Amino acid sequence: MNLAEYQGVWVFLEQKDGAIVPVSLELLGAGRALADKRGVPLAGLLIGDQVKPLAQQAIHYGADLVYVYDHPVFRDYRTESYMKAVIDCCQKYKPEIFLYGATSTGKDLASAVATDLATGLTADTTMLDVDPESGLLQASRPAFGGNIMATILCKKHRPQMATVRPKVMKALEPDLTRSGTIVEESAQVREEELRTKVLKIVRDAQRTIRLDEADVIVAGGKGLGSKEGFQLIHRFAETIGATVGASRDAVEAGWIDHQHQVGQTGVTVTPKIYFAIGISGAIQHLVGMQNSGLIIAINKDPQAAIFQHCHYGIVGDAFEIVPLLIEAFQKAVHGEVQYGGKV
Ligand code: FAD
């Protein structure tokens, strides 16, 4: 493989319901920084049906050019059809670095493409950098149960690929004056040759919570003691209009569904306010919430690691403190809050 033939940073522009998904916009921000450091263009790859209008949005968010595969065969995501388009484009233009959101679609597509192109893929990356001279991508992620950060290099194969979780990178402010190039592509993908047919899309009515979009999260951990104890978290969240989060131990105890789990094997969140209640602050939990605007911890152990990572810490029993908070917030709603009171 002649590595010198490969140039440019690419982002897979995942789209859903007529919009580019937020993680792809975040990756354009991260990709812009890499492309500028390396002195190469940043390109987006957009695949779908009637998606061409979205290309301009990618340019506003930092792309220099966007390759578009716009055809009814790409209406619904299917590994087979999308990977054909991606591989077609990679073979034609040879990107040096290619980033995907670590969504179900991004993870599925990236792994299929990496296998087909016989290149490396770093999953769930949390930091990205590039050596400006060699173009070597430094993709870092927690390893060995989160005890170390591993920086993974792909020295001999191209493109160097990585998936990045939503909310880990920051999107740029859109610049509506930015201009770029839109390149319309067509792939040799024919409906009758595809083995997978989408007959119907059934949305899971249960999956209604969007932890990664919540402004305020009240998260509970093993310290709540039982499923009944965990109800305190629901009551508090309901009082202040927050979304409920949880540690893995609370999820594994069966007190709450996995979709509420925050952390390395759960969701990465960046709310304005994060309450960590009865959560010790294990590294695997911290990586999922440490970029929250304001972290408030309640824990009865003054030595708990969470106190090293919060803005405000309350040492005490959750079952004494949280009811007082609920009471205080309820009073605040009714205009009766007394500062300097018990809370
Ligand atoms: P504990 O560590 O048991 O902490 C409970 C805390 O509650 C203690 O600090 C205690 O002092 C406090 N407490 C007890 N009673 C009270 C009370 N009445 N009032 C106030 N405080 C009280 N964890 C995650 O959360 N998310 C992940 O995504 C995740 N992924 C993982 C991936 C891997 C590969 C591995 C190995 C582990 C992962 N973990 C994850 C698990 C993680 O290591 C911890 O075990 C877990 O986060 C601990 O959950 P916890 O803080 O609720 O429980």
Could you give the topology of this structure?
Blueprint: E1 9-13, E2 15-16, E3 19-20, H1 22-38, E4 42-48, H2 54-60, E5 65-70, H3 79-93, E6 97-101, H4 104-117, E7 121-125, E8 127-130, E9 137-143, E10 148-152, E11 160-164, E12 181-185, E13 216-220, H5 227-240, E14 243-246, H6 248-252, E15 273-277, H7 283-289, E16 294-299, E17 312-315, H8 318-333
Parallel strand pairs: 1-4, 1-6, 4-5, 5-12, 6-11, 7-11, 13-14, 13-15, 15-16, 16-17
Antiparallel strand pairs: 2-3, 8-9, 9-10
Helix pairs in contact: 3-4, 5-8
Bound molecules: flavin-adenine dinucleotide (FAD).
The site of flavin-adenine dinucleotide has 29 residues, from helix 6, helix 7, strand 16 and helix 8.
What does this protein look like?
It is built from eight helices and 17 strands. The chain is an alpha/beta fold and 343 residues long. It has two domains: 3-193, Rossmann fold (3-Layer(aba) Sandwich), CATH 3.40.50; 211-333, Rossmann fold (3-Layer(aba) Sandwich), CATH 3.40.50. The strands form four sheets. It has a seven-stranded parallel sheet, sandwiched between helices. Strands 14-13-15-16-17 form a five-stranded parallel sheet. It has a three-stranded antiparallel sheet with strand order 8-9-10. Strand 15, helix 7 (283-289) and strand 16 (294-299) form a beta-alpha-beta unit. The longest helix is centred in the N-terminal third of the chain and has 17 residues, at 22-38. The radius of gyration is 23 Å and the shape is elongated. Bound molecules: flavin-adenine dinucleotide. The site of flavin-adenine dinucleotide has 29 residues, from helix 6, helix 7, strand 16 and helix 8.
